[in-house]
Amino acid sequence: AIKDTIRGPSNLQAIEATLAELEFKLTHESLSAAQEKAMREKKERMERQDKPAVARLAQVSAKIDEAKAASDAIRADIAVLNGQLDKIKAERDAGNAKLDAMRAEQQEARSDVPALMVEKKELWEVIQTLRDKQREIRVAFNEKWEEFKKQDKAWKGWFAQERKKRQEKSKAEYEERQAARKARDDTGKPAKFEMEV
């Protein structure tokens, strides 16, 4: 993870302050050779590794916040659609219950069949209207859900690419440090003739 590569402060302001402090000490204070070397190595590491890593972390955090906001908005829309579906289901159930009650009354009052048939037709039309509305809301719900899944898939793909880039960068930096260390070691070895003397 990016945070794991940061050894010093985790925000740009703190890093800039630390770099300024190191530069001041290197320029104005009397230091031993070991202290100066340690400070220069720390300053170089912060400029080369910590500062870019913190900037990258800020970008990733911003993208995460943006994706989360989009996800929360879609979830809110889905919740509203679910509420509308529940309301329509309740209205449909109430209509069905009323229709069942009407059917029961119809069995008991055959003499009033014409009026009951008119009411039955009206109730049936209401139920059909509610079903049509339910289908419309379900279509809208499915569209929102598919949008959410696409954004989630895109976010996961982007994050996987970012992780791969960080791994490749860390590997390249490690190999560079190894090569530099080997070069320093080779430079410090005495020549064969000098060893024999």
User: How much helix, percentage-wise, in residues?
Assistant: over 70%
Q: Categorize the overall geometry.
A: rod-shaped
The major pleated sheet works out as: none
- Give me the Rg, rounded: 36 Å
Q: Give the integer mean of the pLDDT values.
A: 84
What percent of residues are in strands? under 5%
* Tally of helical runs: 4
Write down the secondary-structure element order.
Answer: HHHH
Low-confidence stretches: 1-6
Number of strands: 0
Distance between the termini: 52 Å
Describe this structure in words.
It contains 4 helices and no strands. It has helices at 12-28, 33-108, 113-188, 192-196. The model is unreliable at 1-6 (pLDDT under 50). The two termini are 52 Å apart.
Task: Please specify the SSE layout and strand pairing.
Elements: H1 12-28, H2 33-108, H3 113-188, H4 192-196
Helix pairs in contact: 1-2, 2-3
Descriptive labels:
197 residues, mainly alpha, 4 helices
